[in-house]
Amino acid sequence: MGFEQLAPLKEALVKQAADKKKKADAKKSASTGPVDPVLRTIGLLQKHFPLAFPKKPSPKVPLKIGIHKDLLEQAEQLGITPNEIRAVMKKWCRGKRYAECLVAGAVRVDLQGNEAGHVSKEEASQADKPHAPIQSAETA
């Protein structure tokens, strides 16, 4: 095969690869479906406050009591509503990963990751009970 025959072959292969990539991207976006707005807001908080809202696989950290008030103060800057903050705090603070971080004496953190109190023995014992309501950073 001469060099003059390689150029069209290369163009055809490049076009074929681009077509495959377009199809794969279209299939991926179609299969993922719409993103849960609460998860989208959690992602926003993880971007702005990575020490308070760590991404998996990092463990969650105990949040400052009343941290939702700090978020409400910054809601307009972040472009989120008070209802979105409530929904995020409910989801974030009521899961198994959050309950696991509520150990007596563990440091609670503010939005910047600074120390803002400690988990009490009572809060830790509530977290150990599988069906007991956990006193979350939102409700306290």
Automatic annotation (TrEMBL):
One matching Pfam family: ProQ
Record region (Disordered): 117-140
Record domain ProQ/FinO: where: 33-140
Biased composition regions of type Basic and acidic residues, renumbered to the chain: 118-131
InterPro entries, A to Z: ProQ (IPR023529), ProQ/FinO (IPR016103), ProQ/FinO_sf (IPR036442)
Taxonomic superkingdom: Bacteria
Protein's UniProt name: ProQ/FinO family protein
Protein species of origin: Methylomonas rapida
